[in-house]
C-alpha cells in the first residue's frame, strides 16, 4: 500500500494566529487537529482548495516540486517563453491512493461538521478525476450534496497523445483536454426551514449577485494572472476574480466567518478581505504560511 504520512504528528493545532491582516487570520496548524479544538457552530461557510488526500503535499513530493522534477507533479513545458504552472499527475494515483483520498475527505467532513453552523455551505475545489470521491466522502460524513460549481477554464490537463508514441498515433488523445474545473458544493443540514435557519444562523443559502440575478453554478474564468502567481507562489493558486465571486456567495446575508482549512498562500482570505468578510485560514506548511504573510495584503490590493 502507498504510504501516506500524516503531518499532524509534527505540527500541533495552533492557539494563536501566525498572521493577521484586515479581517483575516491565518493559523499555522494541522487542519483536522485545529478543527477539533474549535467551538461548535462557529463557522458560517467554507471555501477551500485542499490537497487531494495529501498525496501531492507530502514533504517528499513538495521537495520534488520545488526542485522542478519528479514525483506526482508534472512540470509543463514553457510556452512562448512563459513558464506554465505545475499540475499533479492524478492519472498516476493507485487504487490505494484513491482509497486514501476518500478516507481523508471523510475525516475532514467529520471534523468540520460540528464546527459549521446549521445550513453552512462547504465549497471544495476538485478536478474531474476525483470529484466523485470528494463528494461521496463528504456526504458519508453527514454533509448534504448541493451540486457543483463549474469553473470554465482551459488547463494543461489532458489532450496529450500517447506517451512515446506521438508520431504513431497523431490523431489520438489519451483523454479529453480539460476545459472546466468542478467545485463540490455541500451544506450542513438546516435547522428547520431555510427561512428559519437564515433568521437564526444567518446561513442556509447562497448570496445572490443582485436582486435580479441569482448566483449561478457556471462561472467563466481564466488561468491565474502572472501578477498573482508572482505574488503568491503556490502551485494550485486560483485567480482572485473567481475566488471573490465564490467567497461572496458562501455567506447568504453577508454575515459570519468564512473558513479555509487548507489556506495555502491565502487566496481565500484575500478574497474575503475584498468582499468585506471575516475569515480564518489554517495552513500546515510553514513555507506557505510565510508566503501568505506577504501575499494576502498584495492579493487584497490587486
UniProtKB/TrEMBL annotation:
Assigned keywords, A-Z: Methyltransferase, Transferase
Transmembrane segments: none
GO biological process terms on file: methylation
One MF term in the entry's GO annotations: methyltransferase activity
Enzyme class per UniProt: transferase
Domain of life: Bacteria
Every DNA methylase N-4/N-6 domain range: 43-292
The protein's Enzyme Commission number: 2.1.1.-
Family assignment from sequence similarity: Belongs to the N(4)/N(6)-methyltransferase family.
Name recorded for this polypeptide: Methyltransferase
Amino acid at each position: 500500500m502507498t504510504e501516506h504520512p500524516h503531518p499532524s504528528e509534527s505540527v500541533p493545532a495552533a492557539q494563536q494566529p501566525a498572521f493577521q491582516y484586515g479581517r483575516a487570520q491565518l493559523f499555522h496548524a494541522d487542519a483536522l487537529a485545529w478543527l477539533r479544538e474549535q467551538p461548535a457552530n462557529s463557522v458560517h461557510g467554507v471555501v477551500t482548495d485542499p490537497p487531494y488526500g495529501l498525496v501531492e503535499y507530502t514533504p517528499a513530493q513538495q521537495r520534488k516540486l520545488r526542485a522542478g522534477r519528479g514525483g506526482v507533479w508534472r512540470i509543463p513545458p514553457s510556452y512562448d517563453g512563459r513558464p506554465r504552472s505545475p499540475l499533479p499527475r492524478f492519472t498516476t494515483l493507485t487504487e490505494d491512493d484513491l482509497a486514501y483520498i476518500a478516507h481523508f475527505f471523510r475525516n475532514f467532513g467529520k471534523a468540520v461538521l460540528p464546527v459549521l453552523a446549521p445550513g453552512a455551505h462547504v465549497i471544495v475545489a476538485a478536478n474531474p478525476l476525483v470529484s466523485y470521491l470528494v463528494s461521496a466522502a463528504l456526504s458519508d460524513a453527514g454533509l448534504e450534496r448541493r451540486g457543483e460549481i463549474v469553473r470554465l477554464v482551459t488547463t494543461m490537463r489532458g489532450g496529450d497523445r500517447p506517451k512515446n508514441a506521438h508520431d504513431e498515433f497523431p490523431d489520438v488523445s489519451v483523454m479529453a483536454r480539460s476545459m472546466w474545473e468542478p467545485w463540490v458544493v455541500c451544506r450542513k443540514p438546516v435547522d428547520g426551514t431555510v427561512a428559519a435557519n437564515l433568521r437564526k444562523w444567518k446561513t442556509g443559502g447562497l448570496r445572490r449577485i443582485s436582486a435580479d440575478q441569482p448566483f449561478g453554478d457556471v462561472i467563466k474564468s481564466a488561468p491565474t494572472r502572472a501578477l498573482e502567481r508572482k505574488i503568491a507562489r503556490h502551485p494550485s493558486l486560483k485567480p482572485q476574480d473567481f475566488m471573490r465571486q465564490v467567497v461572496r456567495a458562501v455567506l447568504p446575508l453577508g454575515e459570519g466567518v468564512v473558513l479555509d482549512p487548507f489556506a495555502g498562500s491565502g487566496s481565500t482570505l484575500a478574497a474575503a478581505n475584498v468582499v468585506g468578510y471575516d475569515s480564518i485560514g489554517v495552513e500546515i506548511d510553514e513555507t506557505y504560511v510565510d508566503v501568505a504573510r506577504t501575499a494576502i495584503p498584495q492579493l487584497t490590493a490587486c
